[in-house]
């Protein structure tokens, strides 16, 4: 590292610290990083170098000395923070083989006997620490800030590969096991497709998706996300194992999920061969990996080597560089989505990247285009990183052709010509002509007819034809379509018309939550629609709800609340509901239709009062899902009063008087979980 003056170093250290803290926050808390891991590691490396050069500036609070924090902050996030018994550290990392050799040599300075390594995939997810006592899962904590983590036990039990009960021999009476919660590619793709359909920003990569999902408040939603887990570090007092690999093999025999991809290496050269073996093969794994972890295998030697403030001296991570390709930007398309958002998509000279040919890449929005200062004809770097859709990460300015022009972001909708608007708090441009912009209208029909919505037998082509013929303009028009109109369409016979009409007929029975989702209200995706349907029970109650009332509902923030209010206040919204109601669609919850999780509370009447770790509405839904009935007031018929923080004193008194059992949220969970 080039020598720089003390004053310069001080300024640069301050800058790097602030930058690193900001990126840590984006990554761990917001789950939305704005730079790649590689760029982050470069900044971190620079700060480490400067602190080594001027140790007087290396303060305790430096990001080089503590791990980024994922602690959920802010009201309503509802996780209890619990101290870690052993600090949860990070790993040193490197992109250079020379540094790996230096790591090996450093160990040789402390250790005088032969040692081996455990070589493991570095799973790209979010760290978890599980405690088992007497063979039962006691607690699950996130890494948090390394000294205390968020208690996410109630969420972790929804991950099928994490056993609640262990079986086998030699299970220590209490131990911790650490690992990674991750989202396999398939689940990640499914989730992002659903999010795109619902007008939500997709997750940047499976890591962000995993850590975002782990902190969801709704257990059912959490289960549907398809998270998985792998464990790689056993800790406890007086454990009887000689090596790390032995310990993990024992853990595997008790039923815990342990990676099958790890190998023992007897030298650093063998470890490097393992790394090289995965460099290209990792592309074919069903989950994301961002590197390889090399650990000293002998536990007594691990103890001898010990830790620095931030990471063990007995382990390090080799990080894969994201693969890049350089290619020419031919043109940019501006695509209008169902919600009117305009996305710039780059057309590229086809290029091979990590085994697939890339022809198109996302440019996200106008800000991103400006930031890259992109010109048509530029040579651009494309990266896949953790993402499915490749993105343009940079421009090779030395190759810019003379006279290259900056693209003009359209000022009008490419489909209907309406001037675009830009949301104040979002970087996206929208076509505001949602009612009549053909591409948006067709998108709304496609969404409405979709399998998760009304499940009507109409693909994109049918919708296009019906729209272009002028047979449909607004959603309720679908229910006015006649057999004659359908048969008049090219290629349609009586049979296809009848099938279509039958699916329309069947859609009248589709439950309210799916009808609500089908309406295509911005930000109201499948899950939000479910929550709203459960909380309000009918479209009339929802339409009448004020902002305060909406904000009371779990997972409903300002943006969603505003979108709902605006939709129901619009002429189009009101007209749609009233005509669809006339057509016979369901606009109320059918109380018998809730998903059943168990019969644990069958025949029981419960009253909930106070604040809980999850929203009250979610708790009530949970009670119903387990067969219980919610009631608003305590009476002789009440079986349990579930009392949270600040439970109503009047209810407590009445329960006492009537001899109604008062239970805590934890006790309720016990009752539910026993089934
Ligand atoms: S060992 C003190 N092994 O990578 C031991 N970590 O960048 C620390 N990770 O915090 C962890 N796969 O969240 C270890 N096979 C593996 C891993 C792994 C992924 C994560 C872990 C760690 C981070 C460091």
Report a brief summary of the structure:
The chain is of the alpha+beta class and 675 residues long. It contains 24 helices and 22 strands.
Detail the topology: elements first, then pairings:
Layout: H1 6-29, H2 37-53, E1 81-83, E2 92-94, H3 97-110, E3 117-123, E4 126-133, E5 136-142, E6 148-150, H4 153-156, E7 174-182, H5 185-197, H6 206-214, H7 219-224, E8 228-235, H8 244-253, E9 263-265, H9 268-281, E10 289-296, H10 299-305, E11 315-319, E12 324-336, E13 341-353, E14 356-362, H11 366-372, E15 379-383, E16 391-395, E17 421-422, E18 429-430, H12 438-449, H13 460-468, H14 483-487, H15 494-506, H16 512-518, H17 526-536, H18 539-544, H19 547-551, H20 558-569, H21 571-582, E19 605-609, H22 616-625, E20 629-630, E21 640-643, H23 649-658, E22 661-663, H24 665-673
Parallel strand pairs: 2-11, 19-20, 19-21, 21-22
Antiparallel strand pairs: 1-6, 3-9, 3-10, 4-5, 4-7, 7-8, 10-11, 12-13, 12-15, 13-14, 13-18, 15-16, 17-18
Helix pairs in contact: 1-2, 12-13, 16-17
The structure holds 2-(butylsulfanyl)adenosine.
Rg, please? Answer: 29 Å
Task: Let me know the largest β-sheet.
Answer: 7 strands, antiparallel
How many β-strand stretches? Answer: 22
Estimate what percentage of residues fall within beta strands: 15-25%
Count every helix, treating DSSP H or I runs of 4 or more residues as helices: 24
Q: SS-based structural class?
A: alpha+beta
**CA(first)-CA(last) distance:** 61 Å
Uncertain segments are none
Shape: globular
- How much helix is in the residues? 25-40%
Assembly type:
single chain
What is bound: which ligands?
2-(butylsulfanyl)adenosine
The overall pLDDT, averaged over residues, is 89
